[in-house]
Amino acid sequence: MVAEPTARRRSRRGRLPGRQDWSSWPHYQAAAAGFRGYWYPVAFSSQITGKPTAVTLLGERIMVMRDRGVVYALKDRCPHRGVPLSYGNQQFPGTVSCVYHGWTFDLKTGDLAAAITDGPASPICGKVTQPTFETAERLGLVWLFVGDGEDAPPIDDQLPEELVGNPAVVGVRRQAREGNWRFAAENGYDEGHAKYLHRTALWRLFKAMPVYNDTRIVRRGRWIYRVQDNQYWEADFPGLGKWSGRAWYKFNPPVAAAGNRNIGNTGGAAKVDEVIAAQDFPGFASISMPGVLRIAYPKFIHYEFYVPVDADHHLYVGVMVNFAEGVSTLPFYAKYLGAIRWLFHGQFSGQDKWMVEVTDAPPERLYRPDESLLQWRKLAEDVTEQRAERLKESGVTPDSGRPEVTR
Ligand code: FES
Ligand SMILES: [Fe+2]
């Protein structure tokens, strides 16, 4: 009799083999709706105008609007009867008024400046403060800081270092996606899939990809890097035969010049952009908290920001950066609009989107290339533990949310 395969795979306790949950990383496991204490990009700068816009970030509904050039963000729930403030509009400069009874909040402080339908002497004024969020604008995007009441660190301390102070042109793709943000971050940093899943992508169609690599994960500063010690372009699988990422119509990777071995995912580059070379990245793929992926190519860097909307949705923000200014930016624009936007930020990244939607873990049975996932979870865990200790010292309870202040 042939055993029923599912029954055979299950252990005596009726569980699938492998890791049943993520309890080895309790902070990571608890962060289904994202990590607090970071800046997140939520919209294009051009989308935020004098008309309130609603965004959801880390499960919180936030109203974002612009007043005289500056972006402000307030909790999107009127404390009076709970109507979204984002349905309101502006009646006085520097304020937003709730659509229902006209409670009017100072955009900067969140203080209730007027309750229009109770007249100028309304005694509730000065007694209610709406929680506010710090905002910033970088790379043509609006960023919000969601914390636990601590002061926001300067956003430049959190952005990838090379994006601060170097002239650059950027091509951005922003897309609301289904699936938990951790699946997106893990997919981005996952060592195993690119060579296999993406070998059919048009972006990769003419470029050979290795079958497998020897990879080490190295931490430097805030980032962990994938360092590829060896790449294998063909392999003989016992009893099965040869398998290769090469094909007659694919170009073989360029022979890397000395020192360029770790740029680009096909093994190296003949020439690397000066700003990128100056970073001396130990590996071409790196990730940092709170889910920022950096893929260094010879002439540009691609970043992915996985922004947690809630436990089941995230915002994908793909940013392609070319370190150029003036007329030398024109070839990048042409290449971005003509090709990268469609092939890379579109179809290639669409394959990742699909996988993130259908990933279902834990339970999971990890294999050797998943060292990349394990190290990312460890980084998230360690950094979050350090933050929890810092907050404890300053008397703040992490994950407590922002209290609604009523004086
Ligand atoms: S619900 Fe906002 S003013 Fe009444
Ligand atoms: Fe991918």
From TrEMBL:
Iron-sulfur keyword on record: yes
PROSITE patterns noted in UniProt: RIESKE
Organism superkingdom: Bacteria
GO molecular function: 2 iron, 2 sulfur cluster binding; metal ion binding; monooxygenase activity; oxidoreductase activity, acting on paired donors, with incorporation or reduction of molecular oxygen
Location of the Rieske domain: 39-144
InterPro entries: Cholesterol_7-desaturase (IPR050584), Homotrim_ring_OHase_catalytic (IPR021028), Rieske_2Fe-2S (IPR017941), Rieske_2Fe-2S_sf (IPR036922), Rng_hydr_dOase-A (IPR001663)
Disordered, as annotated region: 387-407
Keywords from the named record: 2Fe-2S, Iron, Iron-sulfur, Metal-binding, Oxidoreductase
Protein name: Rieske domain-containing protein
Taxonomic source organism: Paractinoplanes ferrugineus
